[in-house]
Amino acid sequence: MTLRTLPRAAVAGLTAVTALTLLSSCSSSRQTAEVERAKVKHAATSYMQAWLDKPSDPADMCRWQTKAMRPNHEADGGTIPGCIARYEDDFAEQDSDAGRGHLDIRVSHIQNVAATATQPRGKGALVTLHRSGEEPFRYALRLVPQSVTWRVSQTADVGSRYRHTDDPVDEVLEHTP
């Protein structure tokens, strides 16, 4: 190696190191995004299971909701005990799902959603629910990070108005308080 080729070799070596660093950071951020997506999916599934698999589970529902979404937020700041008590009253005469098919919950279309006048930015998800022998139905959920987990801050029934589209999440969450 001569003095003339030394700078070229150094540049080539530096370029290779830079490329490897970029590749490893891309891989790392892809893994982080996959972990985040899995956490959002788990939170959405857990919340919907607690809510819609009858009888509903108030304790689990409250754990998966943001304080602001809990029905007792205005009364006591959204404490877990206050939330559970409120839902236990609401669900006191709720029928069970005994005799009905298993509730299948599928979470898809996880995406970033912008803040609105009443909701923080976060992740949106489409949740499709189905029981054997019944029509499927869909909800759009907004989830936000709180502490070390994702929590539900908004739910919106997608309804038949959006039956024509596979991914109504952003539009539904934007237009539902």
UniProtKB/TrEMBL annotation:
<feature type="compositionally biased region" description="Basic and acidic residues">
    <location>
        <begin position="163"/>
        <end position="177"/>
    </location>
</feature>
<feature type="region of interest" description="Disordered">
    <location>
        <begin position="154"/>
        <end position="177"/>
    </location>
</feature>
<protein>
    <recommendedName>
        <fullName>Lipoprotein</fullName>
    </recommendedName>
</protein>
